[in-house]
Amino acid sequence: MTGPERAGEGDADRVGVLIADAFWDLDASQWIIGDPADARRIFPEYFTHVVAEVMAAGGVVEWTAQRDAVAVWVPTSAADPEPDPGRWDAVLDKVCGPYADRFRTFEALQRAHHPHGVDHHYLAMLAVHPDRQGRGVGSALIAAHHADLDRDGVGAYLEAAGPRQRRMYERAGYTDHGGPYYLPDGGPPLFPMWREPRAS
């Protein structure tokens, strides 16, 4: 596999579809939108908006030359101010309709468990097309970014979507960061994880 390529603003739609294709069957996705038809209609547009927001804020969206996997990284500074939720609330209402409050709950829990006071890169999403999952594509994609973080002495944070994903991230050097937390109403767990930079 060749090295990762940087996605541009014009790629946001395609990246959003790839993420949606990879995330349909995650327990957290099904907690947010239980109806498969609604999920297939809403998730591509939602993720397209998320990717566009990350790009506009200076985030790093990297994907494979084959366009079968993408990693969305958000450089996070200890000095970053809290975001203004007003405009994003309007996006959620428009794009997600009756599910907007579920998205808000999910995002609020993520923010509540996110580490503060330390510079790091947040792996907001790692998505691999269903036909390519289980072949090491995602691990190889993030390894290149980890090399950059190690060189600069910067840590990384993420939330694993389930036990299988957690094991994959453990192999990449992540450890549990405060234990799992659960989505409300009997929802599934998410596993916060942290990676210390490795000395070269």
From TrEMBL:
Q: Where is the N-acetyltransferase domain?
A: 50-198
Against CDD domains, the record matches this protein to: NAT_SF
Q: Which domain of life is it from?
A: Bacteria
PROSITE patterns with a match to the protein in the record: GNAT (PS51186)
A Pfam family the protein falls into: Acetyltransf_7
Q: Which InterPro entries match?
A: Acyl_CoA_acyltransferase (IPR016181), GNAT_dom (IPR000182), Trichothecene_AcTrans (IPR052523)
**Name used for this protein in its record:** GNAT family N-acetyltransferase
